[in-house]
Amino acid sequence: MSTSMSGAASLEAEMEICQDAARKAIARGDAIDPAQDEYGHARSAAHSDALRYMRMSAKLGLSLSKLKGEHTLRIHKTETVKSPPSVERPPGRLAAPSPDRFHAAWKKFTRETFGWDWQDEDGNETMGQGDPPAISGGSNTPSS
Questions:
Q1: Where does 31-134 have alpha helices with state H?
Q2: 125 phi, psi to nearest 5 deg
Q3: What is the pLDDT of residues 79-107, one digit of tens each?
Q4: How many CB atoms lie within 10 A of CB 106?
Q5: Partner residues linked to 119 by β-bridges
Q6: Does residue 15 sit in helix, strand or coil?
């Protein structure tokens, strides 16, 4: 290509080359004998080449339209957004547990299951302080 060629003419020439190469790649892919191409790799490769040339041609066309000042992108989309249906939840049943509710449930569980008492002799809360009482007869208890 000569240096005197304008930018638009250069892009048009390159776009024509890409389109011609894409047509040749499609024809090459269609001409492949399925008996010779058992798994379709050669045909797939030829069509992939054609797609690559077509993508390049589209990019060149976009550049050409921008260069000429003809590129405007107008998108008008109208969509009705429906609000999701409201779900009636029973009060208190699906609410996230508060830390206080969690601790109360944990204390109840450990008291009923293991017999742990979370209060000292004076009635003060001892949850989380010190070690819980040892559980006898568990699988991790060393036999004596």
A1: 41-68, 99-114
A2: -70, 130
A3: 777 777 776 766 655 555 566 777 777 77
A4: 14
A5: 125
A6: helix
